[in-house]
Specification:
The protein is of the alpha+beta class. The chain has a domain of about 90 residues. Helix content is about 25%, strand content about 30%. The protein contains ten helices and 22 strands. Strands 1, 4, 5, 14, 15, 17, 18, 19, 21 and 22 form a ten-stranded mixed β-sheet that branches. Strands 2, 3, 6, 8, 9, 10, 11 and 12 form an eight-stranded antiparallel β-sheet that branches. Helix 5 runs antiparallel to helix 6 and helix 7 packs across helix 8. The longest helix is centred in the middle third of the chain and has 14 residues. The two termini are about 35 Å apart.
């Protein structure tokens, strides 16, 4: 008995923050309409379910069926994403808040496709991000003393904002980031416009160890693009991180974050629940965002894989395996269900060849799946079993 695998056809999300070139080039397709490619979804989520190819060649549209008919509902959602412009500052709910929010919006009769719908499903949404290229983001509240130092540094550059900034600094004395954020979000229209006007007109800001050039650039860009949005100050209170290719971070539910620029993959529970707090033309629900946020300072740990041929990042709800083929036969370290995305070279399995940008589904099986070729690939799966003491595993 041999494993059967299925080539996937996946849907693209053309959000405005995506890249016109990066993802089409990676997937080997022409972007004839010159539109941004932001995300490619791999999984069974109803907002963009994958199709599985039943033909041996793996490219026959007549033989394509919804992946769900083979896999059932997968508990994870796998994404390829290309970030050209910063995303909104946002967070995702935990299990209890997702279930409650979904129930309340269902009872209120809010259509699932409505732009004012917060909860598209009852699932929580922890996320794992792995960089394919250099990837920058903001994630998690800084420690209170670092926020205070950032505000002081900001005030030295913009003394005209003393009243606003001093109020924010005093709120930190309560040791409650909820109070700090509530005051920030409730600035008057005049205060926000005045602040943005000062920022956009300011040139030659001196660099410092507290606010790095990338953060100053973000603040200025945000002020220009969103002139009435208090979230333009988010680089002052969120950690700024840069991932190198292959590095991974984990974002639990309730962590405020924003992806800034880069190309990578995301692995999460099968959910599309997003609560936004600014820096976007999309629907913003500050009260509900405040309800689901974790206000404890959190600086995500950056993980760097140390492996010769494979490494597994193992979480509570899913695992990500990174594999590299050297031309010799290798056994996939799992029993499925799993989705594989090839990121370089060619991978051969079960008589099929998968090139860079192509993906396939591995059903649950007791049989080993043998892989051949020279390739780099990511495997998303529900579980990855081996000894916890193994150096090829990182529990996140």
């Amino acid at each position: 008995m041999t494993n059967k695998i299925y080539k996937l056809q996946n849907q693209i999300k053309n959000y405005e923050w995506g890249s016109i070139e990066v993802m089409p080039e990676f997937l080997g397709i022409e972007n004839t309409k010159n539109i941004p490619f932001a995300e490619m979804w791999m999984g069974t989520h109803e907002n963009a379910p994958s199709l599985a190819d039943l033909s041996l060649a793996g490219n026959n549209e007549a033989d394509q069926i919804p992946l769900k008919e083979i896999s059932g509902d997968l508990s994870f959602l796998f994404k390829l994403l290309a970030v050209e412009k910063p995303l909104s500052i946002q967070a995702h709910p935990d299990r209890d808040k997702a279930a409650e929010g979904f129930r309340m919006e269902e009872e209120a009769g809010i259509n699932l496709r409505s732009p004012t719908r917060n909860y598209k499903d009852p699932n929580h949404k922890p996320e794992l991000l792995c960089a394919i290229s250099r990837f920058s983001l903001m994630a998690g509240f800084k420690e209170l003393d670092m926020i205070s130092k950032s505000l002081n540094e900001f005030l030295l550059v913009f003394p005209q904002l003393k009243e606003v900034i001093s109020t924010l600094q005093r709120s930190l004395n309560t040791e409650s980031l909820a109070v700090f954020l509530r005051i920030l979000f409730n600035l008057s229209k005049f205060e926000k416009e005045y602040m943005c006007d000062l920022i956009t007109k300011k040139d030659n800001i001196k660099n410092s160890d507290i606010i790095i050039p990338e953060q100053w650039a973000l603040i200025k860009a945000f002020a220009s693009q969103y002139p009435e949005d208090p979230a333009i100050l988010s680089p002052l209170y969120l950690n700024y991180l840069t991932l190198q290719p292959g590095q991974v971070i984990y974002l639990p539910p309730g962590i405020l974050h924003s992806y800034i620029n880069g190309f990578g993959i995301e692995l999460m529970t099968s959910s599309d629940n997003v609560l936004r707090g600014g820096l976007t033309p999309k629907y913003i629900d500050i009260p509900e965002l405040m309800n689901i946020l974790n206000f404890t300072p959190y600086n995500p740990k950056i993980h760097s894989p140390a492996f010769s041929s494979w490494h597994c990042y193992r979480g509570e709800n899913y695992s990500l395996v990174i594999m590299e083929g050297d031309g010799n036969k290798k056994v996939f370290p799992g029993k499925g269900p799993a989705i594989c995305l090839v990121t370089d070279g060619e991978l051969n399995a079960e008589g099929l060849t998968f090139k860079k940008g192509e993906s396939f589904f591995i059903p649950k099986s007791s049989e080993e799946l043998v892989l051949n070729g020279k390739y780099s690939a990511f495997f998303a799966q529900e579980t990855c079993t081996a000894s916890s003491a193994s150096s090829d595993f990182t529990d996140i």
